[in-house]
Amino acid sequence: MKPFDYQRAADTRSAVAALSRQPEAMYLGGGTNLVDLMRLGVATPAVLVDVTRATSEAIEESSGGGLLIGAAARNSDLAAHPVVRHRYPMLAQAVLAGASGQIRNMATVGGNLLQRTRCSYFQDIAKPCNKHRPGSGCPAREGDHRNLAIIGHSSSCVATHPSDMAVALAALGASVHVEGVEGTRTVPMPGLHRLPGDEPERDTVLEPGDLITAVELPALPYASRSRYRKVRDRASFAFAVVSVAVALDEADGVVRDCRIALGGVAHVPWRATLAESALRGAPATAEEFTRAADLELAGARPLPDNAFKVPLVRNVLVRVLSELAS
Amino acid sequence: MTTTARPYVGTALDRVEGMEKVTGRARYAYEHSPDELAYAVPVQASIARGEVRAIDVQAALTIPGVIAIIWHRNAPRLAPADNAELSVLQSARVAYRGQYIAVAVAETLQAAGEAARSLSVDYAGEPHDTELRADHPGLYRPEKVNAGYPTDSEHGDPDAAMEAAPIRVDATYSTPAEHNNPMEPHATVARWDADGLTLYDSTQGASAVRATLAALFTMPPANVRVIASHVGGGFGSKGQPLAPVVLAALAAKHVTRPVKLAVPRQQMFAVTGYRTPTIQRVRLGADVDGRLTAIVHEAIEQCSTIREFAEQTTTPTRIMYAAPNRRTTHRVVKLDVPTPSWMRAPGEAPGMFALESAMDELAIACGIDPVELRVRNEPDADPESGEPFSSRNLVACLREGARRFGWADRDPTPGARLVGRTLIGTGVAASTYPAYRSPSQASARLEPDGRYTVRIAATDIGTGARTVLTQIAADALRTSPDRVTVEIGDSALPPATLAGGSMGTASWGTAVVRACEALREQVSRSGDLPSAGLEAAADTKEEIGAQERFSRHAFGAQFAEVGVDVDTGEARVLRLLGVFAAGRIVNPKTARSQFIGGMTMGLSTALFEESLMDREFGDYLNRDLAQYHVAACADVRDIEAVWIEEDDPHLNPMGTKGIGEIGIVGTAAAIANAVHHATGIRIRDLPIRLDKLLR
Lengths: 326, 695
What we know:
The structure holds two protein chains of two kinds. By secondary structure, chain A is of the alpha+beta class. Chain A is built from eleven helices and twelve strands.
């Protein structure tokens, strides 16, 4: 591992200042992904600025009826929070579907959003990867891509975003509070993450020095009827092959509103806006659910070894919508 | 000498080193830290075939704390070895991606790691071929296969019998490359001094490491001492010395300081062996009532270009079922891949997946219950050698398993049990593993204080070997286990065979019993105990060489219930039952761990384990426990292992058969058969991933 300095930021302002002062510095949250990447030589920060004390761990109801989650809140605490469990069950389910108890105890909400893809090529610096060495190429397209993207990918990158939590946040339309050199702003989910295009090394729209300070959930009363379903190769401690996060507002057999996001399919937690608009006002039937899923998946461009994800997403989405409707 | 003893063999004695382990006092190889210690981090080739032309070490040597970069130009010379894997840093050739080409040695692990990463290697790369295919022109017939078995066998006229059979199954099965992932990585602390070489090593056999390292460094074995007090799993990957232990010794010699080397998890996927992928064609011919007339089992596998390792994939087929016409073969191709080696039940595990899946297909083709089909084809004697079985209780295992599992009510119709959105099915398969025994030596000593010390260079790789040897010694000495100290895990002790081939207890136990018997005889002759105590020794070479001709095997039956989600294809094992007949069980507690551990690994084989070869780069891609899936706790829901009483007088003084490996044999077939019963989909290529079941 490359030697590095460790600094602990006392507040967000000094954290941002520390990063803008030191271009090779990175923020450290729970370290459950970053430290692995440092051991692998994929991440080589000269300085780690620990922000677990600079940002809040608190999870509090916000004035608008939503929930404000400090960036340093641990994943375990988020999943166990009574408001999350009752008003946003898919978020609690998503967090609990990820990693292991030990990792969730360490992992922070801010860090979870910024974890990197688990594409094998990205994690091996002896191989080309446009994400870890821009311009070096993407071997996944011809090589192993079973777990990689089917939608929104580019010729330079077919990676997926690995977070479960982010899929639920994208469905909920959370706002990410960011403090940067220029001051504070909010970035709406799913707009935090970006498609790879020809700059796959950039996972998010954040600028150098930007620090996630909190995540705010909107008041979305019907999200109490929501579900996260993760399809995975083994029953625990596995990244999603695909996942769906769905909140459904249905009455008298008609969909009034819904929120749908997909995981394991793209470089971003994929908000299924086409399916959502197709369902608004539609009968809550398996036929309509299938039609909406197909509409969303019409844009899929799977690779040979992950084409199965298209029918898989359709099946799971229809299943979860049907379960929520009944 | 006390005479109040009862038999301790058969009782659930707690692990004798349990307290040491749970309190952290038990020291594993990596936890030894001699003075002046340096750390070594190996460097792997990043081409799959070619030569290392040069390594630029300048940048690495400027890193603070770096002591040396060793590669083939400056490495100490080793004596030639039969196993070219051991000739570490002796030439410029690269035979596979991930092979060791250098090692960085530094004052700290971090500095060594950074130095290893900063090397600039100039390669002359060559095109590589890493793909196993059934029509590979390089396939050849090895002279023999692992464990010394004949490569092929043939009886009667299997082709004509197949032709004539009214019921036929002809199917090709494949199993992927799989990697051992013991919790404790391969690790060595190597120290040279005036007396020679001392190694604290994570190994399954200290005596073998001593012999191999002594030969490589051209020393008498007495000048090498290998200590392996506690080992955190091996499954075969630590069964023989490989590149890492040699590299540690070589690095320590070069820097003239003790060196500590642990193989990082990612490197284990290239340098510590793996289970070869296989492509197996099985043909079964039967008459209409399911009696086999022909069995043909042909296996194709791979090895590296530098060491032939031909796994005995089809050998269990030689003993499983009666049939007058039969053939088994093995063909191997040398590819630019890492060298395969032992992984729990090498041969039996993948071979029985194919055979026992084919038997299920035959049961369906004949319309006969799969338990009944197996019973119907039970042989009277070893079907190929003609030797009598020392004991064979497959039928009893099948019957007992069927009873416990509730098999009698089973509707054989596939795809007919939908509960919610889950299809449920059940499956059965047979298990088997040979009952081997190898020569070993042991000593037994009556101490002046009246306690006993038994010494043997056995290894406890987490199985409970130290505990069961204590029980065996206590019975042989007619005393209680708390008066016996068993010393193992050190090559300075009487030499013994490795913890492998499920033969540890049988081999070491025989030597321990004979040494204890000799000691009792001495004690009865000597009258008063001399102040120095009394000691006796035994060597079982002659006894084992002279043993009667029998076909010695353990058998078992595994029953699985699976649920397959119809929307996602996710298969989960709801219930797993194993019933085994493996001679006398020395310790029910540690035995159960072995059985359910093997079955869990079999479940893992069925559903998850698969090392993915990257054709472009020529290495196994999924090199960590996040990407290489082994079963997690949540995957193992309801698992039960039981055994039936088996009294076999033709084995060894304890009447034991090995139990370390049989648990993994047949599990994958039982699960695949259950998946077929659940869904109607026959999966012939492992693992049973959800995309293969998605419809």
